[in-house]
Design brief:
Layout lengths: L4 H20 L5 H31 L19 H10 L14 H8 L8 H8 L1 H15 L3 H15 L8 H6 L7 H17 L2
């Protein structure tokens, strides 16, 4: 029987390491602090995508939540590969060939015909859609830095500074002294709570 507890424990351990790294940033030169902060954010969001997809796939294969309760499934899969195929094709006129886990709306659409909309993991993703979107916007600005990612990132800067300031890079935003603890640390702690709630730990 699959278990989501290892996914939760891995996410918890990895985010603890990232928090530890945040506490050492002040020992670096400012330019290196910003660079490392950006790398931490990339790692953080990758952890989220991998963890939430693994949790959802295992739930559909019969895994229970960490508290022992069962998910509210519309369909059960025989294997992780079968679960992925159900997410892609079941109930759809057009398959979702490329399952994406970086937006709350995309995650809910992946699960739509397989996990009941009232289930815990769907509700947690829905409740935290703004956080997931903000993390994605910052991640995309770091990873892609194209016109679209720059436009989307402006909204995050406006949210935290009250106006768009062209000179505020992701590294500056993540470590701004306007916020205590830093935005980077807040993101890590908030994501830990989202995953804990998602698995009912």
């Amino acid at each position: 029987m699959p278990s989501i507890l290892p996914d939760y424990r891995l996410h918890d351990a990895e985010t603890s390491r990232l928090l530890g790294l945040c506490r050492t940033l002040s020992t670096l030169q400012p330019i290196h602090q910003k660079l490392v902060a950006e790398i931490v954010l990339l790692r953080l969001f990758s952890l989220f995508e991998n963890t939430i997809s693994s949790i959802c796939l295992k739930l559909v294969c019969g895994a229970s939540y960490v508290d022992g309760t069962s998910p509210n499934l519309l369909l059960r899969a025989r294997s992780v590969q079968n679960a992925r195929a159900l997410f892609q094709t079941h109930g759809r006129t057009r398959p979702r060939h490329d399952l994406k886990w970086s937006k709350a709306g995309e995650i809910k659409e992946n699960l739509r015909y397989v996990i009941n909309a009232s289930d815990n993991v769907v509700a947690v993703v829905d409740r935290n859609g703004v956080l997931v979107d903000e993390l994605r916007r910052v991640r995309n600005r770091i990873a892609h830095n194209n016109p679209q990612s720059r436009r989307n990132y402006r909204e995050v800067v406006r949210r935290h500074y009250g106006a768009f300031l062209n000179h505020v890079t992701p590294g500056m935003l993540l470590l701004t002294q306007r916020l205590t603890p830093s935005l980077l640390e807040q993101y890590i702690r908030q994501q830990r709570i989202v995953v804990k709630d998602a698995v009912k730990a």
